[in-house]
Each structure stands twice: as structure tokens, then as C-alpha cells.
Amino acid sequence: MTALRLEGIRLRFGGVTALDGLGFTVEPGTVHALIGPNGAGKSSCFNVISGHYRPEAGTVAFGDDDLTHLPPHEIARRGVGRAFQNIALSAHETVLDNLMVARHRLTRSGFVATALGLSRVRREERLHQARVTEIAEFAGLGGKLDTLAGALAYGDRKRVELARALASEPGIVLLDEPAAGMPSHEKWDIAHLIVSVRDALGISVLLVEHDMPMVMAIADRVTVLDFGRRIAGGTPAEVQNSPEVIAAYLGSSHPEAGAVTVSPAREETS
Amino acid sequence: MSETTTLRRAGQAAPSSSSRAGRAALVRRAAPWLLLLPLCAVPLYLDGSWLIIGILGMSTAVGAIGLTLLVGTAGQLSLAHAFFVAVGAYTYAYLAGESGPSAAGGLGLPTLPAALAAIAAAGLAGLLFSPVAARVGGLYLGVASLALVFIGEHVLKNATPLTGGYNGREVATLAVGGFEVNGGAPGLWVLGVPFTGRERLWYLALAVLVVSIVVAGRIVRGRPGRALQLMRDNPAAAGSMGVPAHRYKAAAFTVSSVFAGAAGVLTALAFEFIVPQYFTLHLAVLYLAMAVIGGLGSVPGAVAGGLFVTALPLVLDRFSGSLGFLAAPGSGGLDAAMFARFVFGALLVIVLIAEPGGLAGLWRRLRPSRR
């Protein structure tokens, strides 16, 4: 079991500081929620961890592996899985094919071996299809493996997105708003699923989610971001009572900026 | 349409008919192979002037398969396909050609190794360009690859000892163990039909096409294909699934060049004499048209597109006498080639607007029972 550690991450886009000395640790085997108002830097933080953005300063480490300067595919190989917020599936491929892509780091068959149809290629394919089928059933996609991803209902596509992240057999999985836009009962299905990812699969979860009741119910630890900084962290109960968090969410005077920044635009939309 | 789907599903659910479902799957798998039988019989019935249309169609279909892998599956636009076809064609002609008193030289290698080496050379040329292909994406790669076509044209016209320059060069007859594959020696009669160059080459083209379809199908459906498709649809997601983008873009480009090389060798064998005027931007655009009309990313679609785009002007030309509206080639009027170009242009527009899946998409729509 390995911990994901961020230290002193600074990320800037031109003059805008997206992340400002951000640091926190996701302990192994926990559901760790990353919350904050829109534009607080949650998705930027995910993009730094998974290598899509390169920070100006700071380090990201997963166990003994320094991820800071690695490209996305190398980070994936080291066991960091990711589900995307705006569903990033191949719409014209089946659910099975969409999930099989995630086995990329665990499989070997290259162009030549595949073209020749070697027996080890077919064996590998069978083996991994069996495992992917298990994962799909775990994620509640049992009978839908042969459906085209684009033909699925929204909620199921979100599940495929989540199942794909799991199918890479990661040590930690980053879930970017896995329940966004879902009706309440489906949301709680996803919440249960996330908890069993931790308990049954032993995978740590780093979660960005706007639905506060859900976050407070399933997270072991919560880190609160505002303006790219960590303003609070701890158990859900500790965070809920933190004055900084209340201030950030209700839009009263910002403790760091020193000015009154009441902005309805930063209210939660979910 | 939906009735058939439910019926089939109900049939599969019944335990007694599971073997019937298995047999149905077997028939579906075997059906394309049964199609080969009539194709193998074609040289018994058609004369050489028709066979050559089929041979050229199958040759370009091989190249179109390569391009659909690159443009359709990997989402990388390339206008350089004609260049790699030329590399295959000229490498074979040079390696297998005798160095005689004629303008173009040759190494006089045994022809079968020369053909394989020519395919490898096209792959190598693709590999050499692949660092560019890996770093430039989509439309920009199209522009970058355009340069290759012009460089290629220049080299073909000026490297006279290799290519014969403007006047082109002869292509040696391919022989396997003394048996000429696109020639008449030794004499061969099958069911009373003399099998000379074109009859024999028909089978070679058919064999190469079948191998290409099988190989490309495996790649598209297998691990590399899935990686390429996700890279096309969502590069960020592909990265996070562990797909090294640069390597896969480069590999897709190289693989596509190998197919182009095979198409080049076949085309050279069919023409028996190759000239630089064939391997131009026009050919590159025609290849793109094949891939688009067939349906980007679909291997059977590329085959259909390749056959159609190649055969249409040739068939029209054969009938131009009886088709009153077509002028004789070179007369300045609307000849078969010109008319075919209008048809391709119109088809491209129709495909892009009405059925972006191309012929393959149309086929799927007509048979919705297969998911």
C-alpha cells in the first residue's frame, strides 16, 4: 500500500496562479475528498498528479516513485488510475473495448505480434477480457459489455468511465466528479461503489465531488482548496466546522485576500 | 429491424439452441472466406483487360487499408501516402531490375526478396518520417507530409540512375522459383484458359489483399488498435490509460507505410512500367478519397473504397464508346477520368454530410442486427 504525496505544488497559467504551494497526502486505503468552490484548483490538481500539467514547483510522489516530471503514460504505469469528469470514452467502441484499453499497461502485444495473431496474443486477450468482465460486473455494467459506449445512458457512461479507471488495476484512482449530474438514487449507488473500491479492491480513492452529503458520508479525509491553496483538511467533521471552509463556501470576506469578495458566480451549481 | 434483434436474442437465451447460435457464428465467420471462391474463379472468365482493373483495384485497396489505419483509426492525416507507394514501387524496380544499357540501373536481385525488401523499405521510410508524425498531429501532419510528396516527385524525376527519370523505368517480372507471377513463363493452362501475366497476378493481388485485410483487422481490434482509437478520441485519456502517445503515433505511421509499400510493389507489377507522373499529390488525394468514401477506420470500407475509386474511371473508359456523354481521353472533352473525378468529389461531399461512416457505415445501417 502506497501513499500519494503532494508537496508545495505551484502551477500558473500566465498571470493566474491555479495552485499555490499545495500539499496534502492521500493515505493508503482511504477515500480522500478534494473539495472547494468552482475554480479552486481541484481539476488542475488532478491534471498535475496525472501528468497532464507540469507544475512550476513542488513534487508529486506515489510511494517511492517521483511522478513530478513523468509523462501521463508513465504515471499510469506506476499505478495511478484516473476517471475523467467529462466522459472521455470512445463512443463508437463497445464497453468491453473501452475497458480493455485500460489494460494497456498490463499487456504486451505489440503491432507485429497482434498482426501475426500469435497464440500468446489470443491468450492475453482472453485472460484480460475475463478480468475486465469481472470489473464491469463490479461496477454494475454486467450485461452491457457489448453495447456501444455512445449508446449508453449518461449514468452508465459515468460508470464505464469509473470502471475503466479501475480496469488499469491502479493503486490509487482519481475520480473527477463521478456522480455529477446524476439523480439522487444513482448518486448513492456510485457512493456505495466508491466505498467498495476502497474496501473490496483495496484501492485508495482521491475524489473531487460537489455533492457535500455524499462527500461527508464516504470520505475518510477531506482536503479543502480555495484559490489554489489548501485552506483546511482533516476528517469530514473537522472540516465542516472549520471557519475558513464556511467562509470560502459562503463567500464572506476572504481570510487571505483581506478584501470582501462576495461573488455569486462562485456559488455551487450542483 | 429491431424484431430481428429480439428474435436472435430470444433464440440465444434458449439453452437447446446454443449450438445453433454457435453454428450461426461459425457461418458468419466463414462467409467472407466463401466469397473468395468466386473471386478465385474470375481469371477463368474475364480477359486481361478486365483483370487489370481488378488487379489495380486490389493493389490500391491494400494501400487504402494502410491509410485508413492511419487516418481513421489513429486520427492522423497524411497526404504522403503516394510517396510511400512510390518507395515500394521504385525500390522493387531498382532491386530486381537488371543493370543493362537502358537508362535506369538495377541490382538484379532475386525478385521475391526484392519485393519483400521493397515493402520493408517503405516501412523504413515511414519509420524515418515517424518522429515528425509523432510530434505533429492531425491537420498539421497533413501539411508536413505534403512535403514528402513533392520531395518524392522531385527525386523520382531526377535520380535517373535509380528511377529512370521522367521517362520512368521498367519493372522486372516477379518470379518465384522460376515461375513467373506476372509473366507467361513457364506456360500454364487451367481448364483450357491460358494463364499468363494478368491471370497469375490476379491471384497474387488477391492473396496480398486477403493477408492485408486479416492483418489490419487484427491490429484494429487488438491492443494496438484500441490504444490508437482512444488516442484519436481523447489523447488525455489515452495517456492516463498508459498509452505512450509519441510511440503509438510513430508506429501507426510506420505500419501504414508498410501497407503502402505492398501496394507499390503490386502496382508496379501490374503496370510493368512505372513513371513519376503516377505518384503525385493526385494519387495521395485519391487514397484519402478511398479511405473517406469507404468509411474512416473501417478495413472493409477501405477495400470497397479502394476498388471503387480505382475501378470507376477505368470501367467508364472501357464503356466510353457506348456511353454517349463521355469524350475520348485527351480530346479535351469530359473523358472518363475527368468524369470519375467529379463523381469522387460529389461522393466525398455526400459521405461527409449524409453518412460520415462511409460505405462501411451504410453497410452497418443496412444490417443493424449485428449490434
From TrEMBL, chain A:
The source's domain of life comes to Bacteria
What keyword terms does UniProt attach to this protein? ATP-binding, Nucleotide-binding, Transport
Q: Is the Transport keyword given for this protein?
A: yes
- Signal peptide boundaries: none
What are the annotated GO cellular component locations? Answer: plasma membrane
Question: Which PROSITE patterns does this chain map to?
Answer: ABC_TRANSPORTER_1, ABC_TRANSPORTER_2
- Matching SUPFAM superfamilies, A to Z? P-loop containing nucleoside triphosphate hydrolases
Q: Where do the ABC transporter domain residues begin and end?
A: 4-252
For molecular function, the Gene Ontology terms on record are: ATP binding; ATP hydrolysis activity
Q: What InterPro entries has UniProt attached to this entry?
A: AAA+_ATPase, ABC_AA/LPS_Transport, ABC_transporter-like_ATP-bd, ABC_transporter-like_CS, BCA_ABC_TP_C, P-loop_NTPase
Protein name, please? ABC transporter ATP-binding protein
From TrEMBL, chain B:
Q: Name one GO cellular component term.
A: plasma membrane
GO terms assigned for molecular function: branched-chain amino acid transmembrane transporter activity
Where found, per UniProt? Cell membrane
One Pfam family recorded for the sequence? BPD_transp_2
- Transmembrane stretches in the record are 26-45, 51-70, 77-95, 107-129, 136-156, 201-220, 250-271, 277-296, 339-363
Topology within the bilayer:
Multi-pass membrane protein
InterPro entries per the UniProt record, alphabetical: ABC_transp_permease, LivM-like
Keyword tags: Cell membrane, Membrane, Transmembrane, Transmembrane helix
Chief localisation class:
membrane
Q: What is this protein called?
A: Branched-chain amino acid ABC transporter permease
Organism equals: Actinomadura rudentiformis
